[in-house]
Design goal:
The complex is a heterodimer of chains A (128) and B (180).
Chain A: H1 12-21, H2 33-40, H3 44-52, H4 55-70, H5 81-93, H6 97-117
Chain B: H1 5-15, H2 18-39, H3 44-60, H4 71-106, H5 115-123, H6 128-139, H7 144-151, H8 155-176
Helix pairs in contact in B: 1-2, 2-3, 2-4, 3-4, 4-7, 5-8, 6-8, 7-8
The chains are: A mainly alpha (128), B mainly alpha (180).
Chain lengths: 128, 180
């Protein structure tokens, strides 16, 4: 439908705006599009598996760091003594060794629950 | 009562409720497909392929949607990213299509009485960024900040492209219709 008749009192800008907006509300018919999308959605299991994929490289990174620190950084030429010293200080600062153990248990429980639940897949698009 | 988009998102994430996600797709398919049809120069098949990928990616990433923007804006942002990622491989074909369309539009100014035709033809004379700004503002009804979020452009760039696009449209239409 054309946005006519044009009001002669309207400014040129108003008329242009009206023309540009006149079919804004027109929507495309679905024509089975939604059904095709739903049929192509990944299964829940696939989503959960994809969501856990980040844990493998993360575990590898942690293990690698632990090895480097344990070796004192000798093989890499890195000076890790500040990090090692910091970790030692942190542990020694704990009032009781049982507290350190509790922290480890909590971390393990969180990791296991995350594995069971499956986290959402990381998006390259982030949150808007 | 009709559930809000946020309600449907929560249901989909918490219960993996595909009916809820289906409702979201039905509500927003038109906006996403129209935006992608605009970006692809009217290639409906390519636009629908990209729209399908957009909704699948949105489903995978749904737990990351916090409601900081409208669901439409979030979807259009994903759609725009998908289009940009696919554009490189399709750029040559898209440019040829657009070039043909512009040449056809320029060759038929005799249909000056048809305002709709004039406007569509004039829109093809704008740069792709100006066309996208005009489309999102007028056809999708997005605000300047929402356009900035969808396109990843600074707010000033959004306003500049929109203003330039409107100026060009005015000049083109005035040249084709000197006595409206």
């Amino acid at each position: 439908m054309e946005p006519e008749p044009l009001n002669p009192n309207q400014s040129e800008q108003d008329r242009l705006d009206e023309w540009l907006r006149h079919d804004a509300a027109a929507s495309l018919p679905d024509d089975g599009f939604s059904s095709r999308v739903l049929a192509a959605l990944p299964s829940r299991q696939a989503r959960a598996s994809a969501g856990r994929m980040w844990m493998l490289p993360a575990a590898g990174l942690v293990a690698g760091l632990a090895i480097v620190i344990a070796r004192g950084g000798a093989s890499t030429g890195l000076d890790v003594s500040p990090i090692a010293g910091l970790l030692t200080d942190l542990v020694s600062a704990l009032p009781e060794s049982s507290l350190g153990l509790a922290l480890v248990v909590v971390a393990a429980v969180l990791a296991v629950s995350e594995l069971i639940r499956g986290s959402p897949e990381d998006s390259p698009f982030g949150e808007l | 009562m009709t559930p809000s988009d946020s309600d449907l998102v929560r249901r989909t994430v918490a219960l993996d409720d595909r009916e809820s996600y289906g409702e979201l797709v039905r509500r927003h398919q038109s906006a996403v497909r129209r935006f992608l049809r605009h970006l692809t120069g009217g290639d409906a098949a390519l636009a629908d392929d990209l729209a399908q990928e957009t909704f699948i990616q949105a489903y995978r990433s749904l737990a990351r949607f916090r409601g900081g923007s409208s669901f439409t804006t979030w979807l259009l942002g994903i759609a725009h990213n998908y289009y940009r990622n696919s554009r490189r491989s399709r750029l040559r074909a898209a440019e040829e299509t657009q070039k043909d369309a512009v040449e056809q539009a320029a060759g038929s100014p005799t249909r000056a009485s048809d305002l709709r035709h004039d406007l569509d033809s004039a829109l093809l004379r704008l740069s792709p960024d100006e066309q996208t700004a005009v489309h999102l503002f007028y056809r999708q009804g997005l605000s300047h900040p929402e356009m900035s979020a969808v396109l990843g452009w600074p707010l000033g760039t959004v306003k500049t492209h929109l203003a330039r696009g409107k100026d060009k449209l005015r000049n083109i239409l005035a040249a084709w219709n000197p006595n409206p």
